[in-house]
Automatic annotation (TrEMBL):
Residues 1-25, 75-114, 446-467 are annotated as: Disordered. It comes from the Bacteria. It comes from Pseudomonas cedrina. This is Heterokaryon incompatibility protein Het-C. Residues 446-461 have a biased composition (Polar residues). It holds the Pfam family Het-C.
């Protein structure tokens, strides 16, 4: 812009006899910046060139264009296919998946998440709004997994972003996601208070709340309670919690989950049909639903009906039914594959160059998350400079380009996307969850409980959360039946029937399949039409392949993002001073 101004003003303008330009000297306004704003209106997504002027001279009369086909091709290579994949898999989450299921829109009858599982409550008389309020409690349990002792820093520890984050910071991040997911419940003052995520409401990751096997081979830190008293202590090899109960034929730690579920159901019954009561009801249902997804209950149910080729995923032990009910050990790899996606989608929204007007002073979800993360950095210059950037964006948004107002927001975001890209650095905080899990991922299948003496499979070996697992739909069917029955009991309780006992009923579902008959008809009917899936469930090789084909792309994508983010963040650190000095609003 400055160059063009100089050429027009000095080289091409008419001259006085002394050779000086007949045009006035440069004015006060910054024509370089003003010209850059015009250039930034290029429609990169839908075209490869833009005319920015019409030039007339003795040699040429026609348009002047800029050709950005190479930039367009680069953007398509780096974001096109990846963006489409993310758009088609918005619900890749943990524990039956927070949400409705990975492919629920395309396959509503065979792809389920916690929210679609709880559609069964509709048969028990719960309205759509009530089901959403109940699901809020369930959703909170999924996202409490992000507060893992490996990444939470103690309140007294110095800031160590992006290696560690405070519990308060992580809670604020989850609250932003909650506002987006449960906005329909926050339209009133009471709603905003009831559905604003607090530390007490969210809690921290505790295996008990997901029926996860608490066994830990690599205790780090040595005692999680030093970081936060709400963390459970590690269950090291030999801990009595890991033993099999002879009469119940299940792991002892499962009883802790049953007790937690009962307490939450009793709290919900006492609180009644209130926001708090429904939230506690949802927290309890999360445990009940995870039982069918995170344990080998489905496999043992099929074996009970004669499908003995199905792998039990446990060693035979000295207990009533020989093959005990067990659940999987939950590791960092499972957390990152489950929870990185929603944060990535918010920090790196796929906007497809849809222009949206920027409202001065209004922060996007991405802005809010980045500011929260940057506050955790030991060097507060980054927080300060990002705040300056937001001020710059507001300044741009206030420029009276009335005819192009809908494009100003896109311009204002461009420096972050293509120059500063602080989002990439902020994303490192989520990437830290990968941490030591790469080695864990490589050894997940080395110990096969079907041929060893182990009763401690990994979560990845057992989990039926994703619809590529052959028993996903059966686990969902069993879960929906249990949820509906417990929902009917809670309805009666809230309507004044003191004989109804949701806690007692829910507890009856968590047992060895040989000690109950309610599931037999459901399992038998499913088995009639799923011979292929049963064959897959008999092959550890097939199951390992399905697991790897599902998780490897996620982990590869995350590691790629991390490498890109590290490179761009190093660029930011090396050029921070120069970048900000060049921005005229802050000279």
């Amino acid at each position: 812009g400055h160059h063009i101004d100089n050429v027009l003003r000095t080289d091409l303008a008419d001259k006085h006899p002394d050779g000086s330009s007949t045009l006035a000297e440069d004015g006060l306004l910054d024509e370089g910046a003003r010209y850059a704003y015009r250039i930034a209106f290029f429609d990169i997504e839908n075209s490869h060139e833009t005319m920015y002027a019409h030039y007339t001279s003795a040699d040429y009369d026609g348009p002047l264009k800029v050709d950005y086909s190479e930039a367009q091709a680069a953007i398509q290579r780096s974001q096109g296919a990846d963006a489409e994949e993310q758009e088609s898999k918005l619900e890749s989450r943990e524990g039956f998946g927070a949400g409705r299921g990975e492919h629920n829109k395309e396959k509503p009858g065979s792809s389920f998440g916690h929210e679609s599982i709880e559609d069964a409550l509709g048969k028990a008389g719960f309205t759509v709004a009530e089901r959403k309020a109940i699901y809020f409690g369930n959703w909170l349990r999924d996202y409490s997994q992000l507060l893992d002792p490996k990444i939470v820093r103690a309140p007294t520890a110095p800031k160590d972003f992006p290696s560690k984050l405070s519990r308060d910071t992580l809670t604020k991040l989850v609250n932003i996601l909650a506002f987006k997911e449960f906005h329909s419940l926050q339209t009133t003052k009471d709603g905003r208070e009831d559905y604003t995520v607090t530390q007490k409401m969210l809690g921290v990751y505790r295996p008990t709340e997901h029926i996860d096997n608490p066994k830990n081979f690599k205790p780090d830190p040595a005692d999680p309670k030093i970081i936060d008293r709400e963390f459970d202590s590690w269950a090291l090899p030999g801990d009595p919690l890991l033993a099999v109960l002879p009469q119940k034929s299940m792991k002892r730690y499962i009883l802790n989950s049953v007790e937690y579920m009962q307490n939450r159901l009793n709290d919900a019954a006492a609180a009644g049909r209130s926001a708090e009561g429904m939230r506690w009801f949802g927290e309890a249902l999360h445990v009940l639903e995870d039982y069918f997804s995170h344990s080998n209950y489905v496999e043992l149910s099929l074996r009970k009906l004669g499908h003995t080729e199905v792998l039990p995923w446990t060693a035979k032990t000295d207990c009533k039914h020989g093959w005990p009910v067990v659940t999987g050990m939950f590791g960092s790899a499972d957390i990152i594959a489950s929870l990185a996606a929603p944060f990535a989608q918010m920090l790196f929204p796929v906007d497809n160059s849809d222009f949206e007007a920027t409202i001065p002073g209004k922060l996007t979800e991405s802005d809010q998350m980045i500011l929260i993360l940057l506050e955790e950095h030991s060097d507060q210059r980054y927080f300060k400079y990002y705040k300056k950037y937001l001020g710059y964006r507001d300044w741009v948004a206030g420029i009276p380009f009335k005819s192009e107002a809908d494009k100003v927001g896109w311009i204002a975001r461009a420096p972050v996307r293509f120059v500063i890209n602080i989002q990439n650095m902020a994303y490192q905080a989520v990437l830290h969850l990968v941490g030591n899990s790469v080695d864990d991922t490589q050894t997940l299948w080395e110990d096969n409980p079907n041929i060893s003496n182990s009763t401690d499979p990994s979560h990845s070996q057992l989990a039926k959360d994703h619809d590529n697992h052959p028993f996903h739909s059966l686990a969902a069917a069993l879960s929906m039946h249990a949820v509906e029955q417990v929902g009917r009991a809670m309805q009666k309780q809230w309507q004044g029937d003191s004989n109804a006992s949701p806690a007692k009923l829910a507890s009856s579902f968590i047992c060895h399949p040989n000690d109950s008959t309610w599931q037999d008809a459901i399992v038998a009917n499913w088995a009639k039409n799923h011979a292929t899936e049963i064959r897959q469930g008999a092959s550890a090789t097939d199951l390992e392949h399905l697991h790897k084909t599902h998780t490897k792309p996620t982990l590869d994508k995350i590691k790629k993002k991390g490498k890109e983010g590290e490179e761009k963040w190093n660029y930011i650190k090396n050029n921070l001073k120069d970048l900000y000095q060049e921005w005229s609003p802050f000279k």
